[in-house]
Amino acid sequence: MLKLLIVEDDAGLQSQLRWCLDGYEILQAQDRASAMAHMRRHEPELVTLDLGLPPDPANATEGLALLEEILAFNPGVKVIVVTGNDDRENALKAVALGAYDFYIKPVDAELLRLIVDRAARLYELEEENRRLARGSTSSLSGIITSDPQMLQVCRMVERVAPSDATVLLLGDSGTGKEVLARAVHDLSNRAKERFVAINCAAIPENLLESELFGYEKGAFTGATRQTIGKIEHADKGTLFLDEIGDLPQSLQAKLLRFLQERTVERLGGRNEIPVDVRIIGATNQDLQALIRAGDFREDLFYRISEISIDIPPVRERQGDATLLAHALLERFAREQGKPRRGFTADALRAIEGHPWPGNVREMENLIRRAVIMADGNLVTAEDLGLEDRDQEAPPERLREARDRAEYQSVIKAMGRCNGNIAQAADTLGITRPTLYGLLDKYGLR
For the chain, how long is the longest CA-to-CA vector? Predict the structure, then answer.
């Protein structure tokens, strides 16, 4: 949700502006000093500024000085100056100094709302352009997390990627196994070659062998031409075997032979074809239990799991539920062209309290639907179809629990505020330097 600072010394007009600009996170200031305090503490993206401010409300001197100070502090802020009927000259001067637009009293709620909404949209577009211009060189940029367990997973990916070791990704459905598999590929020496993915559970058993190993013309009815398999297609690159726990027993032996010999033999063929490919497997099943039940080969397990990486579910990632929700809301609002600016308090509580059995995939579905169906600019718990479970616990009083409570509070605040340091500090009731100190203390930078 974008923050809007209303700088107005008239209490009645301030209340009217707050009412007609509902949907933004409203901040209020009566003079230059309090306005700049809000700018430094909350970093609002939008400002409505009355040019006639104390100590000289009859003139625009103080308002114009504040405008210059705001734009010097953050040139990207959209400032709409509000002035009286007889002060058009100063309004034009404000625009020349860098104000986005001006509005002349008396206040017309619909017109002012239109100007502010247009400024907000322009700010978002400019911010997106700045983000794209900065670019992202990280292959892990698709991972959104502040959770120590998940950050450790990312560090493991960075360490293992340059090697040619087989990697086994273990985790519930929807935890991001394919995203991490692509990161392993993109950070490896094979990054310029193909990344080939195949879902072992989605292809019928009688077709899976030909999909993996290919076939010669005439190998079976309908084989009218020679076709290479996924393994051969991934030569010099990476082959991602998703849901490898569902691989049939007959193909487990053939895959094991490939991993040992690094050659494939197409169906109906006699030639052994050398293939240089890195294997990454993924599953949400307990492979050790499958081995004990005789459904998965133990020797194959050791071949595919030279490096095993356990990916925690969303419910175990501290602060990640709300952090992911903010990112998904921004993405889907942009894709759908909907003016969704954030979540209500009940929605944030519901997101934090929901166990997310479907993990990120479930969250994507709920938030995409809410973006399309919501009535207002803020998404509510009802829009998400979640129950508002008010699980706000009282502060811990025991001395020995202080560090744990402090750590959890910082994680939760950073998630709720979408990583915004100033807003998180305000939520916690501390200064930004204090929050930076806590982030360093707990290794959360």
Answer: 95
